[in-house]
Specification:
With 462 residues, the protein is mainly α. It has a single domain, classed as MFS general substrate transporter like domains (Growth Hormone, Chain: A), CATH 1.20.1250.20. The radius of gyration is 22 Å and the shape is globular.
């Protein structure tokens, strides 16, 4: 029989059952494995497996789409078979997928590996977040989710940092073996220490669970907010889709894009708990609105790099270090992304968990991943075409342009014409962010109007 794990707290606090902390420890290991692999995945598929930019965009778009779509179904499976059994299956699949990805550098095995990884990852997502929700009550839900999200970002930071060092010393391939080891460690932890949460929702028929899923999908207000928030994640996803490749093609391999990407989780780890506390009186939709207002400026700042470079007249002398303007704009933009996430993610998890009827927390926590599912499907495909059009693979250049590109990286002349408008990539994503913010304003206006009309007629808002 499962343990009774929901604390009887009547007021906000920071004490949670042991299973809550074990689940977060497993999440930390899983995220360290995943982000270590994912920050280098596009370059690995392009440079060592042989896929083109557009092929990489479509392949990772499909990978992330299914990875973030499957939790809607895996939440059903987890509720049915139990969270512990689901986690053990997930970490077994992840370890096998990572090991296979590093063992054979072939296009076919790469695809098979990604299938295993996305299946295992899709099981983990609703189970860990569902555990956090079930191990807290209404008074502590926001705090539980802020801890959970802080742990996610600690894993993200450590995983990308280790990936940078492994890439420097051993090469991209060995990052996959490291990820397999982390998945095995998480499997051992779950086997020995994790205990099931309550049994509500287990033992359902598939038909009952799918009818519940249909009920969620038909929640038009919630579905609309999911699609709007996807604009945020389409931009945040460029930390993995565009930024590492963009940095290497514009500046060479002397910079470590993994550490640049780590600015995001570092900011989140430092600020997510205090910001969640300070913003606790805001409605979730208002906190999400702050995030959507910030996010387009994170891409716009990077897009303005040529203007800053012209004003600076070259690398910036900061006394301690000479810094290229592109690195400075990336640091500022990525830090702002982290700040925006602090306003968005914990409150969005909270909003999602409160939509869940009894016994369907796993289902709803899986469903919230659809916002990233649609965002990264769109964002990675668009990234592939934008890279091809404005910041192409140097191997596709003519011999003369390739020589000019190499000379430019060595500081001996201008980049070839193929890279003259590379920064347009970031203007495209800034436009996506501004569109999402405007859509949220329309959403808030229409839902307020609908609620007012329903109140006047004596009906409760949905």
């Amino acid at each position: 029989m499962a343990d009774s794990l929901t604390p009887p707290a009547a007021k906000p606090g920071w004490r949670f059952p042991a299973t809550f902390w074990f689940a977060n420890a497993a999440e930390l290991l899983e995220r360290a494995a995943y982000y270590g692999m994912f920050i280098t995945l596009a370059r690995y598929l392009n440079q060592e497996i042989g896929f083109s930019d557009v092929e990489v965009g479509w392949l990772i778009a499909g990978f992330t789409f299914i990875l973030y779509f499957l939790p809607t179904l895996m939440g059903i499976l987890a509720d049915k078979i139990g969270f512990r059994a689901a986690l053990m299956a997930a970490f077994t699949l992840l370890a096998a997928g990572y090991a296979l990805l590093g063992s054979f550098q072939l296009k076919a095995t790469a695809v098979i590996s990604l299938v295993l990884i996305m299946t295992g990852g899709a099981i983990v997502k609703p189970v860990i977040s569902g555990t956090a929700a079930k191990c807290s009550d209404a008074a502590n839900r926001a705090r539980a989710m802020s801890i959970f999200y802080m742990v996610v970002n600690i894993g993200s930071f450590s995983g990308k940092g280790l990936a940078a060092e492994l890439n420097l010393r051993l090469g991209l391939r060995y990052i996959n073996f490291y990820a397999a080891g982390m998945a095995l460690a998480a499997l051992l932890l779950v086997s020995l220490l994790y205990r099931n949460v309550d049994t509500a929702g287990m033992g359902k028929t598939v038909g009952q669970a799918l009818r519940g899923l249909l009920k969620v999908i038909l929640n038009f207000r919630y579905l609309s907010l999911l699609l709007i928030v996807a604009g945020f994640w389409a931009i945040q996803g460029q930390l993995y889709a565009s930024m590492p490749t963009y940095v290497e093609r514009m500046l060479g391999t002397g910079y470590r894009p993994e550490w640049l990407a780590n600015i995001n989780p570092a900011v989140v780890v430092l600020l997510v708990v205090p910001i969640t506390h300070l913003a606790r009186r805001l409605r979730p939709e208002s906190s999400i609105g702050i995030a959507l207002l910030i996010i387009p400026f994170t891409a716009l700042i990077i897009a303005l790099t040529p203007m800053f470079t012209q004003l600076a007249g070259g690398p910036l002398d900061l006394k301690v270090v000479s810094l290229h303007p592109l690195i400075l704009t990336l640091v500022i933009g990525i830090a702002l992304q982290g700040l925006a996430e602090c306003f968005l993610s914990p409150r969005f998890y909270e909003y999602t968990s409160k939509q869940a009827p009894p016994g369907e927390v796993g289902l709803y926590m899986g469903y919230q991943s659809l916002t990233t599912c649609f965002a990264w499907l769109f964002g990675f495909i668009l990234s592939g075409y934008l890279l091809k059009g404005f910041c192409p693979d140097p191997r596709t250049l003519s011999a003369a342009d390739y020589a000019q590109w190499q000379a430019a990286l060595a500081g001996q002349g201008e980049m070839p014409a193929a890279y003259a408008h590379a920064h347009y990539l970031w203007y495209a994503f800034a436009a996506v962010g501004f569109g999402a913010f405007l859509a949220l304003l329309v959403f808030r206006f229409l839902t307020a109007w609908i609620d007012e009309r329903r109140a006047q007629s004596g009906r409760l808002p949905s």
